[in-house]
Amino acid sequence: MKYDEIFREYDIRGIYEKDLNETSVKAIGLALGEKMKERGVKTLSIGHDARLSAGDLFRFLLSGLNKAGGIKIYDIGLLPTPVGYFSVYADYFDANIMITGSHNPKEYNGFKITIKKDSFFGQDLQKLKFDVNEIIASEVKISDDFSCEKFDILTPYVHFFVKEFSELRNFKQPFIIDCANGAMGVSIVPIIKSLGLNAKILYSEPDGNFPNHHPDPSEKENLKDIFECIEKKECSLGFGFDGDGDRIAVITPKRNIKGDELAYLYALNMKNPRVLGEVKCSQNMYDEIAKIGKVFMGKTGHSNIKKMMKELNVDLAAEVSGHIFFKERYFGFDDALYAMMRVLELVHKGFDLDGELDKMPPVFSTDEIKIKVSEENKFKIVEELKNRIKNGECDLPKILNIIEIDGIRIQFEDGWALVRASNTTPVIVTRFEAKSEEKLNVICNSVNVLIKGCMI
Q: Is 102 a residue of the active site?
């Protein structure tokens, strides 16, 4: 049996027992151990989120890695993914693997891999897939070997935050945090307590059954407790997190602030900011930040963004979905807890979050709209759409520019449209923005007609 579908663009992800089982995960460990040794890895940390399958997958992975040999392995326990990144970026270890299903349903799990401060993704994962299938086909015997050493990385991580944000100590403004029974409670509770912050913390106990709601802050229903708290005027600021703590939602009395809007707010408190956005970001973000700094557009995906951040030497990067990456005063990886602390810092300094966003030119936009297609057809459909647009075989408003960084972003006089194939699921993702609702509807309808024509 081959396990091709678990090797995604940014990570390894699948359903426990069906896709990620003793056979596949031991083979992944062995193949990955060999890859890491080739890159000079001597020490490796492994952590996991709250998923119920984490223990089994950790033992299977460990057995494969120990079969490869030559690497000292450290168990850092149940933690948010960014704490695993911290263990490498802060020079404690050469590499890290986080066992996490992120925001996926509870039966899912996976692996996010960092080697020498670089994400292991894209072509690296495709080459690993080939090696894993060869190991499985060859029926290499991988015995149980759970040898490793425990390591407390949480304490230095907490100390870093308490020192970095010491000016917030005893800040009295109330706010609410929803940890969604994911891994975030492990790190956020001691930091809030050490700084004496006035936070109401919900669902901080890690529980892989996610008994209160699904750990995906991009869905409004998962943030209802925060909205209720703000509506009752118990507080005017709330934060929600995904299952492994690398994605944030920020709620105010007027808004569910998106990642691109957060980037603009952060930039206001930075000198000559260099900011990277992705293709789904609002034109508002690019235009307004360009007035005080420099902006760049890149591909969607945390691994792509971390790579491009290094190449462009940017201070800050953001995805609309709530992945926020700070290089200014931090390490350049996506950490939702750090993003939260920087929001609190803005509020502490007197920034009115809603007031600042109200100053931006009004635009009308859609959330991400996902069109289900087959895995094998999603890229073909987007290519067909590109060809029809370039050849003039379409009925669209006047096109000013076409950006093909990731799918196709079509710039019109009064707005833009994005059509791209998801790298993680069998869907085509669209997003639309315009200066009026009328223009938004025109753009949406004309592009959707074109997409349907390409799907025939």
A: yes
